[in-house]
Amino acid sequence: MDVGQGDCILLTNSDQVMLIDAGDVGAGQVIIPYLKSRGIKKIDYLLLTHPHKDHIGSAVDVIDSFDIGTIYMSGKLATTKTFEKLLDKIDDKSIETIIPDVEDKISFGDCDTQIIGPVKEYDDLNNNSLVLKITYGNTRFLFTGDMEKESEMDIIETKISLKADVLKVAHHGSSGSSTGKFLNEVNPEISIISCGKDNDYGHPHAELLDKLTNIKSQVYRTDVSETVVVISDGNNIKINNDTVIMQPDNNDKIIDKENNMVYIGNKNSKKFHLESCNSLPKESNRVYFKTREEAIEKGYEPCSRCNP
Question: pTM for this structure?
């Protein structure tokens, strides 16, 4: 959801509802009407990745507006008034609250839903963000809160599979997160950045955007596209009503470093181009092929201008 400089993600599956984070103070004016417009009365799982204000700021408003099943929180506490009010509200409502361990599962519809981080406790609140991986059919989603480099490296060392088709980019696109090694492990077809327009932090940072460009990930930003709607049928993914062609394990969009050749397909016209072509589609409408033969096999025709 577009909640400005903050995070709030609505997930639904098999009539169950999960909300990851609740934006900053005031974001409830967006979150609550959005959920109610979809007929939501109960949030089965409210997962608060960490206690920074831009992630829990409107949690009290959400709790007051909906029936809450279970709350998941990181074990790291904060001393802010916002966090203290949240704890008081949880206590007043007697809501079941769980501090999960790594590899804990959440029974969420037909999805395989697993906590994969943090793998240890850190002094820093961001690194203590809960990290959630959801697999639905053949599609995979990774939600990272505000985790930073240290937590990323520790998760990589566990050897757990981080492969995901859709990545919620950590920390609003900060250069302090999303190392090249981490992004290569995830290798996301789609990357979504939640940040406020003209925010004071300069998010998303140019270094991060360059990294996502280098791995050929399609980028969606709430400061540009506003609320981003992702729909999966277990095999295919649609974003804002555009179908994304998924590649097995995303390997097809990795450029052969020795050959250094890539072909770019237009998902609408079904034409494919050289990187140097002046008729390339915008990033959200691209699909990448390693060979000319692969593009043709997928039903794409060569561009008449660049003759790939």
Answer: 0.80
